[in-house]
């Protein structure tokens, strides 16, 4: 049986969505140890919807085929960087120059700078941002991984750290929410800290410079409705890449009516 020619299929009207390379509406997929063949399949299948891959925490050190994965990402116009925990490990050992060499050796153009685990002050982190921005494009991260300490971090401290990192040269600032959906922007029970989010959103910070880690559909839906479909997302699971794109385009029940470009003319 012949395949069906879908080239002239009529599609529904959808909201505008920029093509890669994008500066807004970024989707950062987390790779916490995907097998190389699966990673390759995902990149080939979904590359239009993946702007960056973050090789989570220190997985790049123990991934035997990390160079192959990086090659696959490059071949599909997907940027990459290593998780901030790796940066923190090098800092803990007072080996920043070795961190630079590691990133340069893998051809990284972006690096993540964080202080979510190691006791690095926000001021010192901003200094690292400034230093590394001389050689790399820096994605900083704000927020703590410890759930108790994170919940006690006042909104004013988040905003101060975001502002300092951007002033120091960070191109993007990631707002922490662990892949479990707990900690950072979320409470230990997984509930979003709505007051914190509102203070950040109304602080005057350029929202196009923020990446909201949102590992669940519930969080993704909230930020799309609150900020818009071009909100930047991090910690996107590989299996959720396509689902997130349908949320952005109103092709899923959660955002179907809100993002339908014809609704206003109907009502």
Total strand segments: 8
> How do the helices and strands follow one another from N- to C-terminus?
EHEHHEHHEHEHHEHEHEHH
Largest sheet: 8 strands, parallel
User: How much β-strand is present in the residues?
Assistant: 5-15%
Rg calculated over all Cα atoms:
19 Å
Low-pLDDT runs: none
Question: Mean of the pLDDT scores?
Answer: 93
Explain the overall architecture.
With 267 residues, the protein is α/β, with parallel strands linked by helices. The chain has twelve helices and eight strands. It has helices at residues 36-46, 59-62, 66-75, 84-92, 96-105, 122-132, 147-151, 155-168, 194-201, 217-227, 241-248, 263-266, and strands at residues 27-31, 52-55, 79-82, 110-113, 137-142, 172-175, 210-213, 232-236. The chain has an eight-stranded parallel sheet with strand order 3-2-1-8-7-6-5-4. Helix 9 (194-201) links the parallel strand 6 (172-175) and strand 7 (210-213). Helix 8 packs across helix 9 (194-201) and helix 10 packs parallel to helix 11 (241-248). It is globular. The N and C termini lie far apart (45 Å).
What would the keywords be for this entry?
267 residues; alpha/beta; eight-stranded parallel sheet
Quick overview of this protein structure:
By secondary structure, the protein is α/β, with parallel strands linked by helices. It has helices at residues 36-46, 59-62, 66-75, 84-92, 96-105, 122-132, 147-151, 155-168, 194-201, 217-227, 241-248, 263-266, and strands at 27-31, 52-55, 79-82, 110-113, 137-142, 172-175, 210-213, 232-236. The chain contains 12 helices and 8 strands.
